[in-house]
Write a structure and sequence with these properties.
The complex is a heterodimer of chains A (255) and B (378). Chain A has one domain (2-208): Rossmann fold. Chain A is built from six helices and twelve strands. Chain A has helices at residues 36-51, 67-77, 95-109, 128-136, 189-195, 241-251, and strands spanning 2-7, 9-11, 32-34, 56-62, 81-85, 113-117, 140-144, 146-149, 153-160, 163-170, 173-177, 200-203. Chain A starts with a strand and ends with a helix. Chain B is of the alpha+beta class and 378 residues long. In chain B, the strands form three sheets. Chain B has a four-stranded mixed β-sheet. A four-stranded antiparallel β-sheet of chain B has the order 2-3-7-6, with no helix packed on it. Chain B has a two-stranded antiparallel ribbon with strand order 9-10. The longest helix of chain B has 37 residues, at 228-264. The chains are: A alpha/beta (255), B alpha+beta (378). The A-B interface holds A 72-73, 76, 185-190, 192-193, 195-196 and B 6-7, 10-11, 14, 17-18, 46-49, 52, 56, 61-63.
Chain lengths: 255, 378
């Protein structure tokens, strides 16, 4: 079994995120870390590996050179090897382009199962896993809260309006997981010391047989900072407080 | 040696993630309820915190002392009491790993390094603290075993540990007549005093360990007869810088909390941090902590290299760092005013926890004695 986990490096969620002058996310404004959702995706793969020796887990990312740090962290958690697609022409690539490159990279790597996060913490497009599946002509099990991998298939459940969908697919397949899925482990000291000796391959667009497509990027037409939070409504009880409170909740469809 | 390498940065980051998630939110509650979180210690074991500098051969993490001081500082930022406990446990694991034979290492290091089992270090006695060579616990040879009698005082983890390393007298020849023994829990004649009521360190139990005709096989002797005092002292070099690192972490946390508080606390028409008298206090805290950090790293490096001045540097670093940490915590209380005295703000706990670091693993007076003697002997 070979599992490829798709990884994105994002600004740390715990710090304030900033936009640059062009309205794009300022990536250097806060510390860059592996997207937590990808750590959960990796955890799902590692749990299968823990129970099934001989399973190979590869983490794969597209990003700038700095992404090496994120991949090393994933290696220290237990992934066997890492692949970074690094090409300056890919800076700012849009979802369509990103998914095409990722699809080519996983194809080059070879896999039985691809595990991704359902959406990134920064861009939150939520479409890359589906687009990668489409490029590869494979089934997608999207936004799984639980995930079970067997030698031939993958299954899981995802929440939908008013219910839960239980889905499964034969391998090879693509799945994406939500933040309700497996809680990621901490890397241990041995893992950290071993991580730097594990293989980390850097490949370019040319290695994938692709050429630069300068137009395939997102552009921001307008960006507005989130308005400062306004003060809330204060209700002073002059005999009408209960009624006012009920009206407020009703007006906001909370009751 | 002044810049952390990539591995060290990754180690510190991992410990910070663990300490922030598993220790910090519970530290006040554990202190208040005197809860010893053995389940969380097991998680710490998964990380590799149980045998930080024990060799990888039997399950240790195989890191250096220079790595260890960074790790313990980071742990102590979240909870000095738990960080210090883990340091003591590590001293026990290292002693078995460094001085044990293959059978002893194979039996104990794996379960101790994973923190499935815990270890206690039993040197101090009711009548022998700083003057450890005067200890009176006795081990008498009895066929293929030894019979141990005596009382050990202030033993961290006692009652919860699976293994007790007991320093006992096998000959009346002062420090040369002391031998180290591995005493597993459950041996007939081994019992424990009540959990001591203490100023701090409430998240770990402290009890007497009482040995009454405890018979252990000769195979449980750690090293040769008469080598116990040397083993005890070698263990303490590392214990001292770890304890210094724990004080540094506590003091650093106190400083950071105080900076944040003085920025937002307004009085006399502006934030208190604008008061130069208070700013100078912060600067002094920062300078003392940073000096201690520098000395600690130098001592750890000496221990890693087995340098000739290791004992002197470890003693200096222990004294300087434990004083700096306590002073920072105490000043932090003062700068928080009345709020610093409230348990809710978490500063009085840091001061209570760090106070004992000036006393144990060789009191700070003994550290001065060690350093002073090296001057006198030159």
């Amino acid at each position: 079994m070979k599992i490829v986990v798709l990884v994105k490096e994002v600004p740390d969620t715990y710090e304030a995120r900033k936009l640059d002058s062009s309205g794009m996310l300022a990536r250097t404004a806060s510390e860059l870390v592996p997207d937590e959702i990808n750590e959960r995706a990796l955890e799902s793969a590692l749990r299968y590996q823990d129970a099934h020796k001989g399973t190979e887990v590869v983490v794969l990312s597209m990003g700038p050179e700095s992404t090496v740090k994120t991949l090393r962290k994933m290696l220290s958690m237990g992934a066997d090897s890492a692949v970074l697609v690094e090409d300056s022409s890919l800076a700012g690539a849009d979802l369509v382009r990103t998914s095409a490159v990722l699809a080519a990279a996983v194809q080059r790597e070879g896999f039985d199962l691809i595990v991704a996060g359902n959406e990134s913490t920064d861009g939150r497009g939520g479409l890359v896993p589906a687009m990668v599946a489409e490029h590869l002509g494979l089934p997608l099990l999207p936004s799984l809260d639980t995930l079970e991998i067997t030698a031939e298939s993958v299954s899981g459940s995802c929440a939908i309006d008013g219910g839960t969908l239980v889905v499964n697919a034969a391998l090879p397949a693509v799945v994406s997981v939500t933040e309700r899925s497996a809680e990621a482990r901490f890397p241990n000291f041995k893992g950290i010391m071993k991580a730097k000796k594990k293989p980390l391959a850097k490949i370019s667009l040319a290695d994938l047989g692709l050429s630069p497509e300068p137009g395939a990027r997102s552009t921001v037409t307008a960006a507005v900072e989130r308005p400062v939070r306004a003060a809330g409504t204060k209700i002073v009880d002059e005999g009408q407080a209960a009624q006012e409170l009920a009206d407020f909740l009703a007006a906001n469809r909370l009751i | 040696m002044f810049e952390l390498n990539e591995d060290q940065l990754a180690l510190v980051e991992t410990v910070r993630d663990f300490a922030t998630a598993a220790l910090a939110p519970n530290a006040a509650k554990w202190d208040e309820t005197k809860h010893f979180p053995v389940d969380v210690l097991r998680d710490a074991g998964d990380l590799g915190l149980g045998g930080v500098y024990a060799a990888e051969e039997y399950g240790g993490s195989g890191l250096t002392r220079s790595d260890a001081v960074l790790i313990f500082e980071e742990l102590a930022k979240a909870d000095p009491a738990i960080a210090a406990y883990i340091s003591i446990h590590n001293m026990v694991v290292w002693m078995v790993d460094a001085f044990g034979n293959d059978d002893q290492r194979a039996e104990w290091v794996p379960q101790l390094a994973s923190m499935e089992s815990l270890g206690s270090y039993c040197l101090t006695e009711p009548g022998a603290g700083s003057d450890a060579a005067a200890l009176t616990t006795r081990a008498v040879r009895d066929g293929d075993g030894y019979i141990l009698n005596g009382v050990k005082q202030f033993i961290s983890g006692a009652g919860s540990s699976a293994l007790y390393i007991v320093m006992a007298r096998t000959a009346d020849t002062g420090s040369r007549g002391i031998t180290a023994f591995l005493v597993p829990t459950g041996e007939p004649g081994l019992s424990f005093g009540p959990n001591e009521k203490k100023m701090g360190w409430n998240a770990q139990p402290t009890r007497q360990v009482i040995l009454e005709d405890v018979r252990i096989p000769a195979a449980n002797r750690l090293g040769a007869e008469g080598t116990g005092f040397g083993i005890a002292m070698k263990g303490l070099n590392g214990g001292r810088i770890n304890m210094g690192a724990c004080s540094l972490g506590g003091g650093q946390a106190a400083l950071e909390k105080t900076v944040a508080y003085l920025k937002q606390r307004e009085a006399f028409g502006g934030p208190l941090i604008n008061q130069q008298a208070l700013l100078f206090e912060l600067a002094d805290m920062d300078m003392e902590l940073e000096s201690a950090r520098t000395l600690l790293r130098r001592a750890a490096d000496a221990l890693d290299r087995g340098a000739g001045d290791t004992v002197r540097l470890c003693a200096m670093a222990k004294r300087v760092a434990t004083d700096a940490g306590f002073n920072a915590a105490n000043t932090a209380i003062q700068l928080h005013g009345g709020y610093g005295y409230l348990a809710e703000y978490g500063l009085e706990k840091i001061a209570r926890d760090l106070r004992v670091h000036q006393i144990l693993e060789g009191s700070n007076e003994i550290m001065r004695l060690i350093v002073g003697r090296t001057l006198a002997e030159d």
